[in-house]
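Data card: per-record layout.
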Amino acid sequence: MEEVQTSFQMWCVFALIGGAVVLYASELFELERVSIGLILALLLLFHFMPVDRSAGMGMGGAIDARDILAGFADPALFSVLALLVVGQGLVRTGALDDPLRRLSSSRGLSAGQLLWLGLLSVPVLSAFMNNTPVVVVFIPVMAALAQRLKQSSSQLMMPLSFAAILGGMATLIGSSTNLLVAGAIVGLGMPAMSLFDFVLPGAVLAAIGMLYVMFVLPRILPHRASLTGEFTGPGKQFIAQIDVKHGSPLVGQRSVAGMFPLLKDMTVRLVQRGEQAILPPFEELTLAPGDILVVAATRAALLQALKSTPGLVEQDEGGQPIDPVLAEVMVAPASRIINRSMRQVGFHFHTGCVVLGVQRRSRMLRAAMDDIRLEAGDILLVLGARTDVEDLRQSRELLLIEQSAHDVPSRYRAWHARLIFAGVILAASTGLIPIVLAALAGAFAMVATGCLNIHQAGRAMDRRVIVLVGAALAMGTALQATGGAGYLAQLLIAGFAQHGPSLVLSVLFLLVAVTTNLLSNNATAVLFTPIAVGAASALDSNPVAFVHAVIFAANCSFASPMGYQTNLLVMGPGHYRFRDFLTGGSPLVLLIWGCFSLMAPWYYDL
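The structure for this 606-residue chain is written out next.
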């Protein structure tokens, strides 16, 4: 290998990257602040101390701001952001509610068995499909199973991403990393790879990794709820009123053992029939038009009622508003509506929102909502257009609980969202068009068909993803421009060459695995493929073993959210921090490294 010359700029880049990793892991500052600070430091470094690209990138000219900031125009970034918009369209329209409900109610399979089946399906699918859309498909599935199992989504989302990455190790088309390496070795004079060229060692490593993912990783990960869950609490009971009108699905419902089958997730506290108040237990009571039910239900139960049976919970005369939002507001101290009933307040007339439920901490109410006199501190569950809910911030009578605002799915667009999503997955997985084009087309279609408005699409894009990808690619550019990665590889390989090819191969694997978590897997694969082939030639060893080592190690993007797109996709739904990937993914990197180091001498006959 050609000797790489060191430079002051190269050591500065090493120092900046090391400092950034320490700050990422310590979480003393937000990820965005550290990422932007790193990019700024690199821009200043190369502005005042220019570096010729030919030092490490094989091109002439000084590296400039355009090179450092190129990551923000990277197709991988746009793929992730567009897929997040597509996923939000599925959630916003409730497109996956019915399939997930049927899956979770499958006869003969418990939620735990469904979870295992899902996790085992992911690596199999990822071996033959791009793993990014596979993860997009399974994120809502895992979220639903986590809710059913009463587990935090943080214990399932990272295993989902890792399972997809492991499955991508097995075949040539399992990951874009594999394809990049296959293209690079052809340019270096090696024969082209076949689809199943490394399926046996890849499958062995994936199987060992899946044992860790399924049995160890969930025990390491924190039990972390979302801000909304922590603030509002999933078990809070609201008093809601259900009017049984002509044509209501409740007409003719007969109580069974004191319960109404259609209201299995709600506790009926009172049935008002004319002037008669019927209290539980309800014995052989049949509901009729004109009955008024006072029920105690959680927010989740009321939201499910809105999604599955829109006419079940009373709304305003115009029906569900456009761009509906479910939120909680508190009756402010000294408010003018204290001691006034809902009928006297005229809530819908003044706010444009309708009250679905009332929650009072001091006692459980047993009265029709129109007759409840409000007290300071009462929590009202309200439904309204987003603009009307936002206007509640200006109210002197009510305090909007910020973290409680939640979009209500617009189910009449569900089929549009399903067709768009299926088109994106089909186009991306078959290679008909590049994944970035398929994802952007899907995001555009979600907005164009009304599944999302432009503001909802904007909120779906996680700014952490944007700055993390930009910072990761900036680090990769800086390392290549200064020759830092090549120098480090050269130093380590030369230091272990006298101990034989097996040890050099093991050290190379570890070096690539560490680098792939600092840069991106694709950048790492492209950078180290010629280094690996050169090392095999210098040692007069089997070059296939070294190329496979680069493929497997570059896919070990487990210890950092920056390493791979699927990690970025699950970061938000799993409520992860940088440190979670470091603690949960580092043991898996070491496990795969150890297994490959033991298997390689025997399998490749080194």
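Known properties of this structure: DSSP finds 26 helices and nine strands in the chain. The first strand starts at residue 237 and ends at 243.

See the next section for split statistics.
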